[in-house]
Amino acid sequence: MTAAFLGMLQRLGRWGLSALERLGRGTVFFVYVIGGFPEILRRGRLIVAQIYAVGALSLVIIVVSGIFVGMVLGLQGYNTLVDFGASESLGELVALSLVRELGPVVTALLYAGRAGSALTAEIGLMKTTEQLSAMEMMAVDPLHRVIAPRLLAGIISMPLLAAIFSILGVYGGHFVGVTLLGVDDGAYWSQMQATVDWYDDILNGVIKSFVFGIVVTWIALFEGYDTAPTSEGISRATTRTVVNSSLAVLGLDFVLTALMFNK
Amino acid sequence: MGGYRRISAPDQPRSARMQNNNKNSSEPLVRIRGLIFKRGQRAIFDNVDIDIRRGGITAIMGPSGCGKTTLLRLIGGQLKPLSGSVRVDGIEVPRLSRRALMNLRKRMGMLFQSGALLTDLNVFENVAFPLREHTPLPEAVIRDLVLMKLEAVGLRGARGLMAAQLSGGMARRVALARAIALEPMMIMYDEPFTGQDPISMGVLVRLIKSLNEALGITSVIVSHDIQETVSIADYVYILSAGKIVGQGTPAELAGTNSQWVRQFMQALSDGPVRFHYPAPSITEDLQL
Amino acid sequence: MTESRTLEIVVGGFIFAGLLALLMLSMKVSNLTDIGGTDGYEIKAKFDNIGGLKVRSPVKMAGVKIGQVSAIDFDPTSYRAEVTLKIDRRYDKIPTDTSAKIFTAGLLGEQYISLEAGGDDHYLKPGGEITLVSNAVVLEQVIGQFLYNKAAGNDKK
């Protein structure tokens, strides 16, 4: 009985230690990659290519989901508000939900699935096929040459993707609420403008997506770099990227929300 | 070529260049003494001494998993030994700062087993990669240099192909062109012949030999393909279980008394290295 | 080269779309256009009870938004709420005998201040005060009153 309990305790301890160790290595990795930013910023081409891979290629899924999430919000919001005779507040509801929460969070989750997993697989493959090692032997630092532009591209892309998601969602809600269900067009926009604050809501939303951009891209790149150099190692790392970065986004969202919107 | 050397020269510290040119050629380019390296509890190298002569082709041979690739990584500074000295061109590699190590690596080429071409670039860009990273050369000069290197390995016509479209042998030749792009003093070949058909094997053997002769590049070959390696090597080390069990010119090794070396060189299935993994006798095991 | 050209064009388009989205969020969705700050003058009004009125609640005249609440303070001498209204500069002809009421948009909607113009020839100046006020309708009070009246009515029968 005690032996089983001690065994459990030991497993927990081992898990905790290894998690802590990974976190430590991840942090060192992150700091080192940041060190490559000045060098990479002088070579804009490298960043442009990565913004394409990370941001522009995620655009389709972001556009489609943004419109649909906005439409669902319009429909659900209308059905709820109309019972209270407050359907004029639909614009406010749609915009606040999107700008504060759904925009940054759903974008980050979609980004983790689309771009994050691709980044992990790409870096993992480069490691497995010794490309990173070969770069090192060519006196090129792969953390600066390969990883840094990708991290930078993720940080730049995420707020833009989230903004596109939110604005399309607002129009999706407008389409369902105003065009289909007959909410007053003026009320939709004016209620929205009256309640959505630029600093409290828009700017905080952008800060959120900025933080998510750093965290998700960091996790994806570190998982790729830390892959066991086998094909199953890559597939496990890809799964871990999606799971860990999704959990990190949701957990961080709570913390950030508590810090920002706590009145 | 001469022009390129002058352009790239500011990249290297002056003293290093002088060393490279003036160093007494009797001093080996790579000098390893008392090398000890462990992975976990297992000793990969246990007090190993190796000299790699300038301008020659030195082969390091031994059975799979005896740490041949590890040796190349130790020379290239990707790994640090537990103790012992690894000197390349008079420079103690394990003690180098990151920057100095990078400068040293610009003068070494390494050919990985898989070729390790960058998959998002085509053949031309792969060969151009080290030039673009380390020299401020204009595009026209880079183009000329890359085409010359590709010509040397016979793949000038394949410049537009992506890495994934190449056969294993072609990928290795492109990687070789990339490795000589910065005109290194030394190239390390990691299992260059493994998994090649006889024709591309012959091509690689010829290439290694001709690069060594034409450019005077010191070559280190790590391999367990005895015939091909011995046919071009000037000097051979045979490693086993972390120790050097035989060394000499190919002719010396052919006449050796060591049973182990003879088993390895002649590819005998039984000898000092048993065919059977240690086990109780078969009669005992089958309970006859 | 053409390949890298299309790539750069796509990335340029993406960044442009993202910045445009941010701009639209700022201008069309949020109140950034309101924050013009200096483009208005402030007047005051004191209420016994402001209900759920908040800073940035709209100030309307005849249903049209003409400004917003810029500050809410408690006046410790009169025990009333002192509300500062920021009125758009375009609307500078508000009579001194204008009355202010706190209304609710819909049954549960947000609260706003509605101004009803009086007939005076003199107009409110920056820093002026609206004296004719009526307080926020507090739902609990209304319901309480309604139930009380109902009960009283039943007793009479």
Explain what this protein looks like in three dimensions.
The complex is a heterotrimer of chains A (263), B (288) and C (157). In chain A, helix 1 (2-34) crosses helix 7 (142-180), helix 5 (90-128) packs antiparallel against helix 10 and helix 9 (198-225) runs antiparallel to helix 10. Chain A is mainly alpha-helical. Chain A contains ten helices and no strands. With 288 residues, chain B is α/β, with parallel strands linked by helices. A six-stranded mixed β-sheet of chain B has the order 6-7-8-3-9-10, sandwiched between helices. A four-stranded antiparallel β-sheet of chain B has the order 2-1-4-5, with helices on one face. The longest helix of chain B is centred in the C-terminal third of the chain and has 18 residues, at 198-215. The radius of gyration of chain B is 21 Å and the shape is globular. Chain C folds into two domains: 1-30; 40-144, no CATH class. Chain C contains two helices and eight strands, in the order αββββββββα. Chain C has an eight-stranded mixed β-sheet, with no helix packed on it. In chain C, strand 2 (58-61) and strand 3 form a beta hairpin. At the A-B interface, helix 6 of A face helix 4, strand 6 and helix 5 of B.
Provide a short characterization of the protein structure.
The complex is a heterotrimer of chains A (263), B (288) and C (157). Helix content of chain A is 86%, strand content 0%.
The coarse silhouette of chain C is elongated
Indicate the radius of gyration of chain A in whole angstroms. 22 Å
Cα shape of chain A: globular
Radius of gyration of chain C: 23 Å
How large a portion of the residues of chain A is in β-strands, by DSSP E?
under 5%
Spell out the helices and strands of chain C N to C.
HEEEEEEEEH
Name the chain pair whose interface involves the most residues: A-C, 39 and 35 residues
The mean pLDDT of chain C is 81
Instruction: Give the N-to-C terminal Cα separation of chain C.
Output: 94 Å
Query: What percent strand of chain C?
Result: 25-35%
Number of strands of chain A: 0
Oligomer: heterotrimer
